[in-house]
Specification:
814 residues; 6 domains; 5-stranded mixed β-sheet; 5-stranded antiparallel β-sheet; 34 helices
C-alpha cells in the first residue's frame, strides 16, 4: 500500500496574510467563500489556505464578482509583481471616483482571499486565479517567466545590446537589471527610437495584439527565417523567440506595456451603468406581480394537466421537441416560453420525469395538484431559482430550435444571471422601478459579467427578464415580494409572499347561457377536474373559460356520469342556477347516448332500434368498418371495438362500449405515473440504502458558526501535526485513515472532506482520472467505502458506479 502524500506545511503568502487577519476579517473571508468552511471544519489556517487555493473553489468565487473586480484581478494577473500604486497607475485610478472604485474592488477581492496586499505594499493573487485569463490585458507572460530557462551568458548578451553596464555574472542579478530596464517606458521608448523602421513598426503592432502561445524559448538567437526588424528586437530582449521550433516570437508583458505608453490604461469601469427609473409604489408592484403570478400559476396547472393526460413524447436525441411543445401550448392556451418554463421547473421539482420515450407525471404531481395555488407557485418558483439553465432559451447560435428538457450540462452562469437580475433591480431607490426593464440587462452585465447570455437575446438578458416578469418576481421594473424572498433565499418568506399575492383556489364557476363556464382566479383541483371532464377549456390565466358542446358532454357520459349526476355536480359549483340551455344540452345529449352499443367480437353492434342499425349498415362513411346486419337489432363489424367506436362517434353517433357481462364500460382517462428516476444504489452486502431526499451538503451559513471558527483557527498552533497511516497518529475517523492509505493523489484536506462525505452520507464532487487517462468531474451521492474502491451513485451517469480511490485527484463539497 502506497503512502498518501499528505499536504505539505504551507508557508505561502496566503497563509501569512490569513494569520495577520483579526477574527472579524477572517469571518468575512469564510462568509464570502463558504465552501472553504464546510464540514469537516479546517483545523488550521494552513488547511484553510489549501481549501481557498483549490482551482474549483476559486472558480466558484469568480461568477459573483462585479466587472471592476474582474478588471482589477485581470490587471494583477497580467504582471508578476505589482504594487497598489503601480496598479492604480495601470488602471488610471489614482484619484477621484476611480480611486475609490479601485479601493472598493481590492476590498472585495481581499474578502474573498483572491487578491491581497502584503506588508510591503505588493499585491498577491491566488494561484489558480491567474489561469482565468489566457492573455490578461492582451499581454504575454512577463520577462521573468519567459526567461526562466535562460543562462547568465544569454542575459549578458542582451544587456550589452541595450547598453546596460555589465552586472555581476549571476543570472538573478542580470535578469533583475533587464526587467528594470524594460519596465521603464522612457528607456524602452529611447531604445526603440534607435531601431530600424521595420523593427519600430513591428514592435508597435505587436504591443497591441494578443499573443500567440506555443513552443519553448530561444534566448537572443534569431532564426534564419526571421525578418531583420524581428532579429533586431530579439537581440535586445524586446521579443523572445521559441527555442526548438518555428513560430512567432513573444513580446514580454513589460515591453508591451512600455510601448503602449504612459497614457494607456487598462480597462476599468468602477461606476455601473445608469438605469432610468419611474415611480413604482408598493401597491402597484404587488398588483402587477399578483396578476402575473396568478396567470402563471393557472398556466402551470393547465400545462401539467395536459402532460398528465397525454405525456409528451421525447425525441430520439433527447428532450421534448417543437411539435410537442406546440401541442401542449395549444391545449393549455399559453405560448411556448411559458410551456418551457413550466416543464423545466416542474422537472426540477420532481413533478415530471423521463419515463421511457415519454415525459410523464410522478406521484409527487398528484400531491402538488391538490395544493392551493400559492403553494403550487412556491414549488415552481423555488425550482426556477436554482435551475442550472435559462428555460426560455429556444434558439441556438444558428437560430435552430432547441428542445426542452434535454438534460443539458449545468450552467452556473445562468444561476448567477438570475440572482444578478434581481440584485440589479434591488439597487433602485425604494418606490421606483426601471423605466425600461431592458436597462436592467446592461446593469446585470456590470454586476455579473461572467453570467451566461442567450444567443437569441437582442438586448442583454431579454429572455431572463421576461421569465422574471412572467413569474411575478419582477413587476414594473422593481423587485416584487416574491423576488425579494427569492433573493433572500428564504423559503418561508416565499410561501408567505405567494399566499399574500395569490387568492385561494376558486371552488365556484359562473355558467352562461352561451354554454360557457368562467372561473375567476385559479380553479380548485375538484372544480378543474369536473370542468375538464365535461367541457373544453378555451383560455387560462387570471380567469379561465370552458365551453360546453355535445362532444364534451358525451365525453362525461362516456366516463360513467348520468345526466342527473352531471347536472347536480355542476349546480353545486355554480354561483347562480344553471342556465336552461346548458341543462337542455346535457339532457338532449344523454337521450342519444347509448342508443347504440358496441361489444367486442371484432366487433358486434346491437341496439333496440332496427331502423337505427339499418341506418348504420347503409351509412356510406361507415363502409370501411365492414358492417353487416345479422339481425334487425344486431350488426357485426370487421374493425376492432375501439376503432369502431371512434368511427361511429366521428360520424355523429353516440355509442357506448359494453363489457362482456352486458354492463356499460366506463371510459376514464388513463393516468401515467413515472417510476422514481433515481433508484437507490445497491450496497456491497446486497442491501439498499434508503433514498435521501437531498444529497447536497447543508448550508455552511447555518451549519457552522463562522465567527467561532475564525477565532479557533487564529488561536490554533501554526503547524498542526498531520496524521500518517503509518506512524500511529490519530485520525478523526477510521474512514479517514483508510482513505488516506489509498488516496495517493489527494492532500490531507481532500482526504478529510471525502471521509466526511462517506460518514455523513453527503454528496461530494471529485476530479477523477479514468484508466483511459481522461479526466472528468463527477458529483457522487450515497457513498459506500469498500477500499480500495468507492461505491457511489454518479449524478453524471445516473447509475451506480465504482471508483478507484487512488484515481481521485481532487475533492470539493457539493
Amino acid at each position: 500500500m502506497a503512502r498518501c502524500p499528505i499536504s505539505k506545511k504551507s508557508g505561502s503568502a496566503l497563509v501569512t496574510w490569513l494569520r495577520g487577519l483579526d477574527a472579524a476579517e477572517l469571518e468575512r473571508v469564510l462568509t464570502a467563500r463558504p465552501d472553504a468552511g464546510t464540514a469537516p471544519e479546517p483545523r488550521s489556517v494552513g488547511e484553510l489556505a489549501d481549501r481557498l487555493q483549490r482551482p474549483a473553489s476559486v472558480a466558484l468565487a469568480l461568477p459573483r464578482l462585479t466587472l471592476p473586480c474582474l478588471q482589477v484581478a485581470e490587471a494583477v494577473a497580467a504582471l508578476t509583481t505589482v504594487s497598489r500604486v503601480g496598479l492604480a497607475d495601470l488602471l488610471g485610478a489614482t484619484h477621484g471616483d476611480r480611486a475609490h472604485g479601485l479601493a472598493a474592488a481590492l476590498e472585495v477581492l481581499a474578502d474573498r482571499a483572491l487578491v491581497w496586499s502584503d506588508g510591503n505594499g505588493l499585491l498577491h493573487m491566488a494561484a489558480p486565479l491567474r489561469n482565468a485569463w489566457g492573455s490578461p490585458l492582451g499581454l504575454d507572460a512577463p520577462l521573468v517567466r519567459l526567461l526562466a530557462g535562460s543562462n547568465s551568458d544569454e542575459l549578458g548578451r542582451i544587456l550589452a545590446k541595450i547598453g546596460v553596464k555589465p552586472v555581476a555574472n549571476r543570472k538573478a542579478e542580470r535578469l533583475t537589471a533587464l526587467v528594470s530596464h524594460h519596465s521603464d517606458p522612457a528607456r524602452v521608448a529611447a531604445l526603440v527610437a534607435k531601431a530600424p523602421a521595420a523593427a519600430r513598426k513591428l514592435l508597435e503592432r505587436w504591443a497591441h495584439e494578443a499573443p500567440e502561445r506555443s513552443g519553448f524559448i530561444m534566448f537572443g538567437t534569431p532564426q534564419a527565417d526571421s525578418s531583420p526588424g524581428e532579429q533586431w528586437a530579439v537581440e535586445r530582449g524586446l521579443l523572445i523567440r521559441e527555442r526548438h521550433r518555428y513560430g512567432p516570437a513573444r513580446m514580454p508583458a513589460e515591453v508591451a506595456l512600455s510601448l503602449r505608453g504612459s497614457d494607456w490604461h487598462a480597462p476599468f469601469t468602477p461606476v455601473p451603468p445608469g438605469v432610468r427609473s419611474v415611480p413604482a409604489t408598493v401597491v402597484d408592484v404587488e398588483r402587477e406581480a399578483a396578476a402575473a403570478s396568478m396567470a402563471f400559476a393557472a398556466h402551470a396547472v393547465s400545462v401539467l394537466g395536459v402532460c398528465d393526460v397525454a405525456p409528451p413524447a421525447r425525441l430520439k436525441a433527447g428532450g421534448v421537441g417543437a411539435r410537442e411543445l406546440s401541442r401542449i401550448g395549444k391545449a393549455a392556451r399559453c405560448d411556448e416560453t411559458v410551456v418551457r418554463l413550466v416543464l423545466e421547473a416542474a422537472s426540477a421539482a420532481g413533478l415530471l420525469t423521463r419515463n421511457g420515450d415519454r415525459v410523464a407525471a410522478t406521484a409527487t404531481y398528484d400531491t402538488w395538484a391538490a395544493e392551493e395555488p400559492a403553494n403550487q407557485l412556491a414549488v415552481l418558483l423555488r425550482a426556477w431559482w436554482t435551475l442550472p439553465l435559462t428555460p426560455g432559451g429556444s434558439r441556438d447560435e444558428d437560430g435552430k430550435a432547441l428542445p426542452a428538457l434535454t438534460g443539458a450540462p449545468a450552467c452556473g452562469g445562468c444561476i448567477q444571471a438570475r440572482q444578478g437580475l434581481l440584485t440589479a433591480a434591488a439597487r433602485l431607490p425604494a418606490g421606483e422601478g426601471a423605466a425600461n426593464p431592458a436597462e436592467l440587462g446592461a446593469l446585470l452585465v456590470w454586476l455579473r459579467p461572467l453570467a451566461d447570455e442567450l444567443p437569441q437575446d437582442t438586448t442583454p438578458f431579454a429572455t431572463l427578464i421576461r421569465e422574471a416578469e412572467l413569474l411575478g418576481a419582477l413587476a414594473r421594473g422593481a423587485v416584487s415580494p416574491i423576488g425579494a424572498a427569492l433573493l433572500a433565499d428564504d423559503a418561508e418568506a416565499l410561501t408567505d409572499a405567494c399566499r399574500r399575492l395569490l387568492p385561494a383556489a376558486s371552488g365556484t364557476a359562473r355558467f352562461g347561457s352561451d354554454l360557457t363556464a368562467v372561473v375567476a382566479g385559479t380553479p380548485a383541483a375538484h372544480l378543474l377536474a369536473l370542468l375538464d371532464s365535461v367541457a373544453d377549456r378555451e383560455s387560462a390565466g387570471t380567469a379561465s373559460v370552458w365551453r360546453f358542446s355535445p362532444a364534451s358532454v358525451r365525453r362525461a357520459l362516456d366516463a360513467g356520469l348520468t345526466p342527473d349526476t352531471l347536472t347536480s355536480d355542476l349546480a353545486d359549483v355554480a354561483v347562480e342556477p344553471l342556465p336552461q340551455p346548458l341543462s337542455y344540452l346535457i339532457h338532449d345529449t344523454a337521450r342519444g347516448h347509448g342508443r347504440v352499443r358496441v361489444v367486442s367480437a371484432a366487433c358486434v353492434i346491437h341496439g333496440e332500434e332496427p331502423a337505427l342499425l339499418a341506418e348504420l349498415a347503409a351509412h356510406r362513411k361507415l363502409s370501411p368498418l365492414g358492417l353487416r346486419l345479422l339481425a334487425p337489432t344486431v350488426l357485426i363489424s370487421r374493425t376492432p371495438l375501439d376503432k369502431t367506436l371512434s368511427a361511429l362517434r366521428s360520424a355523429g353517433y353516440a355509442p357506448v362500449a359494453e363489457e362482456l357481462d352486458g354492463s356499460i364500460r366506463i371510459e376514464r382517462a388513463q393516468r401515467h405515473r413515472a417510476a422514481s428516476p433515481v433508484p437507490p444504489p445497491r450496497l456491497p452486502s446486497g442491501r439498499s440504502r434508503p433514498q435521501r431526499t437531498d444529497d447536497r451538503a447543508p448550508d455552511v451559513r447555518t451549519a457552522v458558526n463562522l465567527r467561532a471558527l475564525a477565532t479557533r483557527l487564529l488561536g490554533a498552533p501554526q503547524d498542526v501535526p498531520e496524521p500518517n497511516p503509518y506512524d500511529g497518529r490519530p485520525y478523526d475517523s477510521d474512514t479517514e485513515a483508510i482513505i488516506a492509505g489509498y488516496a495517493r493523489n489527494l492532500s490531507f484536506t481532500d482526504v478529510r472532506q471525502l471521509a466526511h462525505a462517506v460518514n455523513d452520507g453527503q454528496a461530494i464532487t471529485i476530479e477523477y482520472v479514468a484508466t483511459s487517462g481522461n479526466t472528468t468531474v463527477r458529483t457522487l451521492g450515497r457513498l459506500e467505502l469498500d477500499a480500495p474502491y468507492l461505491h457511489a451513485w454518479c449524478h453524471l451517469r445516473k447509475d451506480d458506479r465504482v471508483f478507484t480511490i487512488s484515481r481521485i485527484h481532487g475533492v470539493m463539497p457539493s
